[in-house]
Amino acid sequence: MAITASAISLNVEDVDASARFLQDNLGFAVEMSQDGFVSLTREDVGFNVIFLRTGLATFKPASHAGAAGQGLLLVLVVDDIDDQWHRLSAADVPVATPIETEPWGERYFQVLDPNGIVIQLVQWV
């Protein structure tokens, strides 16, 4: 088996708001979109982030068509965590967890997209 691409797909109420958040704040670009669907990419990430509107009839399995978010972190490893912290703080991006360093060397902070998706930026120090 050869895996040729990867993605994470998240159900959200407002697809456009989450897409704009990743575009405006984290440099993602729209690869494709339709009503209730958008796939975003960045060459250096290695996977696409897909947002689906909650309740799409085409979502399978229907029993799992609820909103994403509870217990989910979208984690992006960066090489300039302090610069990103200052940049996003200055832009008034909603902060879920201010910047901190764990004893095992993980320096990170978390922001919230408009649908409550927690996006964690991390650097290993």
Q: What does this entry look like structurally?
A:
Helix content is 18%, strand content 39%. The mean pLDDT is 95. The chain has helices at residues 15-26, 81-90; strands at residues 7-12, 29-34, 37-41, 48-53, 73-77, 95-101, 106-112, 118-124. InterPro entries: Glyas_Bleomycin-R_OHBP_Dase, Glyas_Fos-R_dOase_dom, VOC_core. This is VOC family protein. Residues 4-124 form the VOC domain.
Would you tell me the structural class of the helices and strands? alpha/beta
The percent range for helix content is: 10-25%
Proportion of β residues?
35-45%
Shape by Cα distribution: globular
Average residue pLDDT: 95
User: How far is it from the N-terminal to the C-terminal residue, by CA?
Assistant: 35 Å
Q: Please outline the major beta sheet.
A: 4 strands, mixed
Oligomer: single chain
Number of helical regions = 2
Low-confidence runs: none
Q: What order do the SSEs take from the amino end to the carboxyl end, as H and E? A: EHEEEEHEEE
Rg calculated over all Cα atoms = 15 Å
Pfam families: Glyoxalase
Domain VOC: 4-124
Organism: Microbacterium pullorum
Protein name: VOC family protein
Give a topology summary.
Blueprint: E1 7-12, H1 15-26, E2 29-34, E3 37-41, E4 48-53, E5 73-77, H2 81-90, E6 95-101, E7 106-112, E8 118-124
Properties at a glance:
18% helix, 125 residues, globular, 4-stranded mixed sheet, Glyas_Fos-R_dOase_dom, alpha/beta, 39% strand
Quick structural overview:
With 125 residues, the chain is α/β, with parallel strands linked by helices.
